[in-house]
Amino acid sequence: MNTPVQKPNKPGIEPKPHTQAFWEAANRNKLLYQYCLDCQTPQFVPSSVCRKCHQKNLDWRESSGQGSVFTYSIIHRAPNAAFKDDTPYPIAMVDMAEGFRITANILNCPPERVYIGMPVWVIFETRDGSDYKIPQVEPAE
Ligand SMILES: [Zn+2]
């Protein structure tokens, strides 16, 4: 007798006090980053202090969502069963127009299409079992 196999959910999000605003904005399809008002440096991922000057005078700013691929890799072996149907898939470090870098999956893009410098923009992935959308990217051209 065959028993249906329940496919596990991809990991969800559990916001921390210093990331709550970020995840709530993501649910409104907005990518926020932090900007240090003391040393004028953008930073990502969100933190409670500036990674450059260690001050706490951080402001939330909204990204245009536009960036380009700094580097990438193709995932052939899924990190867990929830990603198995997606393989092979591209994941990239993306330089955003505002001067910070994110790591994201490149959705809606066959792996052979990805190249360094490829223009991308942020989209927001809804995952089963997660209360928060996940910022990802897709080709902008
Ligand atoms: Zn700073």
The low-confidence runs, each spanning 5 or more residues with pLDDT under 50, are none
The average pLDDT value, as a whole number, equals 94
Count of helix runs: 1
The distinct bound ligands, ions and cofactors come out as: zinc ion
What is the class in the CATH system? Mainly Beta
Oligomer: single chain
How many angstroms does the end-to-end distance come to? 48 Å
**If you consult CATH, what is the topology?**
OB fold (Dihydrolipoamide Acetyltransferase, E2P)
Based on CA atoms alone, the radius of gyration comes out at: 17 Å
Apparent shape: globular
CATH arch. level architecture: Beta Barrel
Largest sheet: 5 strands, antiparallel
Relative strand content: 25-35%
The strand line-up of the biggest sheet is 6-5-4-7-8
Structural class: mainly beta
- Element pattern in H and E: HEEEEEEEE
Total number of strands:
8
Supply the number of structural domains.
Answer: 1
Helix content: under 10%
